[in-house]
Amino acid sequence: MRQSSVIARRLAAASVGLVVAAGAAACGPKDNDAKGAGGDSTPHKGGTLTVLNSVPQEDFDPARLYTSGGGNVPSLVFRTLTTRNRENGAAGAKVVPDLATDTGRPSENATVWTYTLKEGLKYEDGSPITSADIKYGIERSFAPELSGGAPYLRDWLSGAADYQGPYKDKKGLAAIETPDDRTIVFHLNKPEGEFPYLATQTQFAPVPKAKDTGTKYEEHPVSSGPYKVVENQNDGERLVLERNTHWSEDDQRKAYPDKIDVRSGLDSSVINQRLSASQGADAAAVTTDTNLGPAELAKVTGDKELASRVGTGHFGYTNYIAFNPTVKPFDNAKVRQAVSYAIDRSSVVNAAGGSALAEPATTFLPDQKSFGYTPYDLFPAGRTGDAAKAKELLKEAGYPNGLTVTLTHSNSKDFETSPEIATAIQDALKKAGITVKLQGLEDNDYRDKIHNVKTEPGFFLAHWGADWPSGGPFLAPIFDGRQIVKDGSNFNNGLLNDSSVNTEIDAINKLTDLDAAAKRWGALDRKIGEQALTVPLFHPVYKRLYGKDVKNIVISDWTGVLDISQVAVK
Amino acid sequence: MSGFGGFVLRRGVGAVITLFAISVIIYVVFYATPGNVAQITCGPRCSPEQVHQVAQQLRLDDPLYLRYWHFLEGILVGQDYSTGTAVQHCSAPCLGLSYQSDQQVTELILAKLPVSLSLVLGAMVLWLVLGVGTGMLSAWRRGRLSERVLTGITLAGTATPVFVIGLVLMIVVCGELHLLPFPQYVAFTDDPEQWAWNLLLPWLSLALIEAATFARLTRASMLETLAEDHIRTFRAYGVGERSVIGRHALRGALAPVIALNANNFGSAVGGAVLTETLFGLPGIGQELVHAVAVVDLPVVVGMVLVIGFFVVIANAVADLMYAVADRRVVLA
Amino acid sequence: MSEALVASQAPGTDTSVPGASGAHSFWRRLRAQRAALVAAVVVALLVLVALVAPLLTALEGQDPTTYHPSLIDSARGGVPVGSFGGMSAHHWLGVEPQTGRDLFARLVYGARVSLGVALAATVVQVVIGITIGVASALGSRWVDQLLSRVTDIIVAMPLMIMSLALLAIVPSSFPRPVLVTLVIGLIAWGNIAKIVRAQTLTLKGLDYVSAARLSGWGTWRIARRELLPGLAAPVITYAALLVPINISVEAALSFLGVGVKPPTPSWGQMLTAADVWYQAAPQYLLFPAGALFVTVLALTVLGDGVRTALDPRAASRLRVGAGRRRGAGSGPGKGADA
To answer: What torsion do the CA atoms of C30, C34, C37, C43 make, to the nearest 10 degrees?
Structure first.
């Protein structure tokens, strides 16, 4: 609701851009409440879909967007080499071809990936899309003027680490070859079986060099998708998209509405009020970034009509407590385990919005098949914590009379790393004889501190979201010892540098059979879990209202939220 | 007329000094705020090398005085900047570019200002009508039940934060009674009627907050004026009570109301943050709070200067009106 | 001379009571107003509630921080179980959604922060405002220029933005309520300084002050004996308005995430958290809003009363235009009281 959450969200977008920008969506297969509301449920073409959002689409340059699977609104304008499968539930966590004819042909050790473009692809002005345009789009994302995207291209492409983009370096990236207009070849510096997932990100959208206007490109990016931008007011506060008549050869996006009207900068409680009232144009409205909050959920669950207009989805995301084992007393594994046993997940879940909006987590990996989810509960705390076991461990660790620790959290109101969660943990650990002092930091300060190895606190709240639905981007940045960044933004909070973990990560990255890889990510997650470097708290559940006239609700496990490329309003 | 000319000149110089001081303070304060600007701008997953490149591009590694000098230079002669593919000129007075969006701050302000002004001007009319009206009534009906009720209502406005008033108003008026559609900013130039309808609730919410202050002030200064000798004289000569209150007393009581109004108007241009956010009005305040959160210094400085400008201007106008309303005052 | 004035003016300078006989008549006039008396009692009660909050919650058998997960319905977003937000003999005002913490305990503890911060910030504002305003009016032209310019700058700075920035700079170990008080107090004194300066300039021109001047009184003595009593009325009127404004500012800062930190409750924080619950758990919003309203109302009425009692001219106005004509006996100014 309100301002503060707008800030929080914007900051969230800035920091874990993957989540918000993703605007993910998906109805878990177990849910059947995501169907169109009554009447003729067959989707038809036509009409105007209104999108009510809280965060403006400030970045609308494919180079700057940090999305999971190409994003929701961006995916209406930008097509990429591959894309996410637009289906409900687990099927939606698959990667499928988009501009390319397949999801990529790897070399034997998965270091060279080759794609062929479909025939007859055109931009909104009717000019042809070529492989050189895709290469140029990727090169642009290296320009410091257009920073913001995910780090993978820089990390993976051969010789790309110091590349500064096409504006400063006219030679271009040698790691990408375009032998002809329809073929593009990527040379990687190490095996990466998950490259097809990366190719769903907007950096893989074609940008015609002649139309590139640098930092101004986002005002009117050239469309390769079903809609083109006809209006972009106030840096993405209002976007109006209309049909791109040259769009073709797309078996993923349905694009039923004739027009998409995105209005943002709205207060989240107002968005939910408008969707629940569903009057006028709001009857054909959805949101791609605003969940139902606990108070709104309390109201919606008491109203059958409203409840029938709620889409439920799961995005790969984990909220957890992070330990820094170089800070006393968390250098002692028994202390970390004691906290793991003492944690009261039910009160944490309540603070996060209750059992309908958060599911207690005992694994670091999200509880979805594509991540290789393998259930485990190494330090069983039950629903409300095992204070006796925690006390016993503390005694063994040399703290028979309990101990006092400081929990660092942010002051933003995101219900993730915010004071509400911290106080719930404070209250719960009291029972185990652990006195928790709270250190609430302003959001920027908090981020600076927790991501800097020199200032990282010993005990703090953190979260991690999926760049794509697989174990790789979920585990590697947090637990790969070679990804510890000493002089910059570090995400390996536990400063884990375990050669067996590193080796296993390398081995899994070689696999191009994604199902086989998933199994091994799951096993690795459990193995890392034994070190008790984190206490998984909960996985969020997304519940979003949509207007009365909205049909064809598709919510994949990839994004967790309703996919606006599939929605119909007629 | 020379008095007026001198007044304008003195105020002009004063305004420039004030704005200059504000910009220095903001630079220093925000220099000290935590948050690695380059990292925030680049994104959390940017490598140290990339962060360094961004810092260079935004001149974040320069010492503070150089950065401030660059800012002043922009205001005086404009500045050139690169979009990557071309070099563009941001003409004087250039307040720089947003770190986050690369937009010119002056363009950003021009886009947001109409929204803020629409909100504040409309609300001002309402708070003056509500505030001065109830203030007069309660001065007139002093001590009676009707005064107490009026006082209670206006105080309820002051006592309730705007996010509560606004949200409850919206839920009841738009969500439950369907009397109005949910507010959504429409530019005056696009459709004046829709502009007004959509701004009605924001105006009301903002006005309710401010009205009590005006009511109290009007009441107090009316009572004060009523006690003055010339009013007594009117009374003694048998001028009707209504006329005494409505014409003579009000005129004398207006001065402090004008002063307060100028002040509130000026600060509301950038201070109606919560109202703007709640009603989704893309105004100065909302943008400013966002810019503060991401330490977007050029935007913060630019917006604060605009707000300061309005406060200064409003106060000068108030002094003028003050002099017109109350001839005893000499322009200074 | 005027620097000496600034330096020698102790905080909490006796602004309201103009001497022993003045104090006597002040109380007499205050007591004469029934509404003001009622308001005074209400304010005293509120302060008392804040002071004895631990006793009150002990009486109820609750505390403001303990979670009661069994009293909320987790599947419905954590809405309190039972009617009227879970009101019962154990929880007099019900419980807070999502946590089940006792609402009565949070409300009375919240009074400590809200009243404390608002009153203390008002004192800071009044002290700075009077100091700067008087110094500016009585000082030399240069002092006046300088101080007026500083006041202009303070007035022209957006309060919220400066608060956000300052609260972010100060280390988190600094006690939050004190910090919030200081930030509000140090940023928002501009208007009161302006009012004081204008009033002082007016007073300065009055006969009795000129007379005092001519009889060789020092600036400081004039300020203390002649001006401060004359300033009391407008300052108190404005201060009575500042208190609720400061409570709202604290609420707004909480809303923006930089107010007093949890688990310490404040009314502002409660309102911030409660507004979305307006439909699902109305009492959660109504109790803190009601408490705030009563506080503001009582303070305003009391401020009016004190002002009337302080200012004999205002006392005469009691008889003006409201039908209570008991004859007009107005003193020409405050000289007589001094």
So the answer is: -130
**Of A381, A511, B22, nearest in space to C162 by CA:** B22
Length of chain C equals 338
Q: In what order do the strands lie in the sheet with A227-233?
A: A227-233, A238-243, A259-263, A48-52, A285-286
**Residues B277, A2: C-beta atoms closer than 8 Å:** yes
Tokens of A310: 């709620």
Confidence of residue A17 (pLDDT cuts 50, 70, 90): very low
Answer with the residue of higher pLDDT: C326 or C181. C181
| Contact yes or no for A493/A324 (Cβ under 8 A) | yes
- Nearest-by-CA chain C residue for B32: C169
Residue A186 pairs with which residues in a beta bridge? A113, A176
- Is the pLDDT assigned to residue A30 strictly greater than 50? no
| CB-based contacts of A41, cutoff 8 Å, min separation 6 | A35, A551
Mean pLDDT (chain A) is: 89
Contact C317 B292 (CB under 8 A): no
Q: What is the mean pLDDT of residues B141-152?
A: 75
Given a cut of 90, is residue B294 above it in pLDDT?
no
Rg (CA), chain A: 23
Task: Output phi, psi for A237, to 5 deg.
Answer: -70, -40
Q: CB B35 to CB A448 under 8 A?
A: yes
> Chain B: nearest CA to C275, how far in angstroms?
6
From A421's Cα to the closest Cα of chain C, the distance in A is 10
List the structure tokens of A437: 């002092």
Cβ contacts of A3 on chain C, cutoff 8 Å: 255-256
Cβ under 8 Å to B: A residues 11-40: 11, 14-17
CB of A384 closer than 8 Å to CB of A431: no
Contact B289 C256 (CB under 8 A): yes
Task: Write down the pLDDT at residue C334.
Answer: 24
- Residue linked to tokens 């007594």: B232
> pLDDT tier at C12 (50, 70, 90 boundaries)?
very low
Task: Quote the CA–CA distance of C101 and C72 in Å, as a whole number.
Answer: 10
Residue with structure tokens 């083109």? Answer: A228
Taking an 8 Å cut-off on Cβ atoms, the answer to whether A2 and C275 are in contact is yes
Are A353 and A301 spatial neighbours (Cβ–Cβ below 8 Å)? no
Interface of A with B in 474-493 (CB under 8 A): 477, 485, 487-489, 491
Which residues of A are less than 8 Å from C83 in CB distance?
none
Please list, in sequence order, all residues whose beta carbon lies within 8 angstroms of the beta carbon of residue C286, skipping any fewer than 6 positions away. none
Coil, helix or strand for B6?
helix
Whole-model pTM? 0.87
Do residue A161 and residue B84 have CB atoms under 8 angstroms apart? no
**Residues C149-180: tens digit of each pLDDT:** 898 888 888 777 888 888 878 887 788 889 89
DSSP 8-state assignment for residue A131: H
Number of cross-chain residue pairs from A and B with Cβ atoms under 8 Å apart: 165
- What is the rounded average pLDDT of the residues C114-119? 91
ipTM, 2 dp: 0.85
Q: What is the pLDDT of residue C1?
A: 28
* Model pLDDT, residue C89: 85
Residue type at position B219: R
Q: Could you tell me if C299 lies within 8 Å of chain B, comparing CB atoms?
A: no
C-alpha B256/C-alpha B262 separation (Å) is: 10
Residues of B in contact with A488 (CB under 8 A): 39, 46-48, 51
Which chains sit next to B, with 3 or more Cβ pairs under 8 A? A, C
User: What is the residue type of B123?
Assistant: A
| Distance (Å, whole) CA B276 – CA B283 | 6
Tokens of A115: 């794609």
**What is the least distance, in Å, from the CA of C77 to any CA of chain A?**
4
Residues paired with residue A112 on neighbouring β-strands, in sequence order: A187
Q: How confident is the model at residue C311 (pLDDT cuts 50, 70, 90)?
A: low
